[in-house]
Specification:
Layout: E1 4-8, H1 12-23, E2 27-31, H2 64-67, H3 84-97, E3 104-105, E4 109-115, H4 119-122, E5 125-131, E6 134-140, E7 142-145, E8 152-153, E9 169-172, E10 186-190, H5 194-203, E11 209-213, E12 220-221, H6 231-235, H7 238-246, H8 249-260, E13 283-284, H9 288-294, E14 297-300, E15 303-306, E16 311-313, E17 318-319, E18 324-327, E19 331-332, E20 346-347, E21 350-351, E22 367-369, H10 379-394, H11 403-421
Parallel strand pairs: 1-2, 1-7, 2-3, 7-22, 9-18, 10-11, 10-18, 11-14, 12-13
Antiparallel strand pairs: 4-5, 5-6, 8-19, 15-16, 16-17, 20-21
Helix pairs in contact: 1-10
Length: 440
């Protein structure tokens, strides 16, 4: 019988998991390697090894009405879209209200998780942790992995010939914190995702010139939609889901492209996705189109190669005297604490999980990954729902289908996702998994 549950990470998914365990009268122990809660949303002045890292100016892309914990709404005076410090304040309020801190062991790193010898019978795990140089081992009936996927940067240096001889500075976007050091410099940002567009726009106010390179384009959306309502209040609805699932593909694609071009025509700005009907995760940026029209941000295609001082792009254009290159090229999945790497297996840059939560081939379903899924809406309520369902599986209140059925379900969903999002390699780059990770 499941009673003791280990939770890895005290971000929003970890906190939701603690709360859900308590609701089901289980005994959670959460291990957090830093000295604070919040995970991704806890800003630090410098990027720390093994921790998610954000820049100072990060705001949420989901509105407060759609991203709160289900049993803890945001205060009325909080803005619709929040600065990271405001969201961190809310996270602290949540943890305090439900007295969650007492279940967290801070400054404690999980170094190993492995099945016990009798796992096929008990489903139990050996969890080894380190704190202040001291190693401890404990047995848990279940494990909830809440370590997120913004920790291990995808830094595709080998995909860009000549980069190693480039005399300027280059680094991953997780190292970026604020724009002051780039004043008067020429900066190339690689990756048209949320981080790449945010950084490019912010640097456009201080750098002498910013170039934004994208290999495949992207839909760019404003946080504010029709009649001033937040975008997700209008688009993340049952009706929208119904239309998407029932309309003929050609009609659905036409409506999708039409809606994405409502704010501005992407083709005119060099942002049109190569496959315009793909449901590639949109970028949320209220200022990028204005920066492009003012020329403070120049959109460029993928980089073909670097020289000592310049970048040569796929269209043959050359940008001389580049001072900095920032790789906003996303993150890769990694679980260094897992003794058996096959349990959390990555395929096509997706971790193979049933319903995006459970490893399908365990003899006993006593491990869950919470908050890893790329959901249509906000991650906080998604993580809460995932945790509730996973705990019901742990307790035997929900019986899983046979392994073959779970694998078929995984294959079907991954096939749909690949079709919708159209994963593309860096154009002209060697075929390599490192070149296919998602940009942020």
């Amino acid at each position: 019988m499941v009673q003791r549950v280990a939770i890895i990470g005290a971000g929003v998914s970890g906190l939701a998991s603690i709360k859900c365990c308590l609701d089901e009268r289980l005994e959670p122990t959460c291990f957090e390697r830093s000295d604070d809660i919040g995970g991704l949303w806890k800003f630090t002045e410098c990027a720390e090894e093994g921790r998610a890292s954000i820049y100072r100016s990060v705001f949420t892309n989901s509105c407060k009405e759609m991203m709160c914990f289900p049993d803890f709404p945001f205060p009325d005076d909080f803005p619709n879209y929040m600065h990271n410090s405001k969201l961190q304040e809310y996270i602290r309020m949540y943890a305090k209200h439900f007295a969650l801190l007492r279940y967290i062991k801070f400054k404690t790193m999980v170094s190993s998780i492995k099945k016990r010898p009798d796992f096929p019978v008990t489903g139990q795990w050996d969890v080894i942790t380190k704190r202040n140089g001291k190693e401890e081992s404990a047995v848990f009936d279940a494990v909830m992995v809440c370590s997120g996927h913004h920790v291990h940067p995808n830094f595709p240096v080998d995909c860009f010939p000549g980069l190693k001889k480039f005399k300027g500075s280059y680094f991953h976007s997780r190292e970026y914190k604020e724009p002051e050091k780039f004043k008067g410099k020429r900066v190339l940002v690689i990756g048209l995702g949320n981080s790449g567009s945010d950084i490019a726009v912010e640097l456009s106010h201080t750098a002498s010139q910013v170039y934004l390179s994208s290999r495949s384009g992207s839909w760019v959306m404003s946080r504010v939609w029709d009649k001033g309502y937040p975008w997700d209040m209008l688009t993340v609805t049952r009706f929208e889901t119904f239309l998407r699932n029932t309309l003929p593909t050609s009609v659905s694609d036409w409506l999708y492209v039409r809606r994405m071009n409502t704010w501005f025509k992407h083709e005119n700005y060099g942002l049109m996705p190569l496959n315009r009907t793909s449901r590639k995760e949109p970028v949320f940026n209220d200022d990028l189109p204005s920066c492009i029209t003012r020329g403070t941000v120049v959109v460029k295609p993928n980089v073909k190669e670097f020289t000592e001082t310049s970048a040569i792009f796929q269209d043959g254009t050359v940008q001389e005297n580049v001072d900095f290159v920032i790789f906003a090229t996303g993150y890769s999945y990694s679980y260094p604490f897992m003794e058996d790497n096959a349990i959390l297996k990555c395929r096509d840059n997706e971790v193979t999980l049933y319903k995006g939560i459970l490893p399908p081939r365990l003899e006993k379903p006593t491990m869950a990954v919470i908050g890893l899924v790329q959901s249509l809406g906000a991650i906080i309520p998604t993580s809460d729902l995932q945790a509730r369902w996973a705990i019901r599986v742990f307790k035997g209140l929900y019986k899983l289908p046979p392994v073959n059925d779970m694998m078929e379900d995984i294959d079907e969903k991954m096939g749909k996702k690949l079709k919708w999002y159209v994963q593309l390699q860096f154009s002209g780059s060697p075929s390599s998994s490192v070149c296919m990770k998602k940009a942020t």
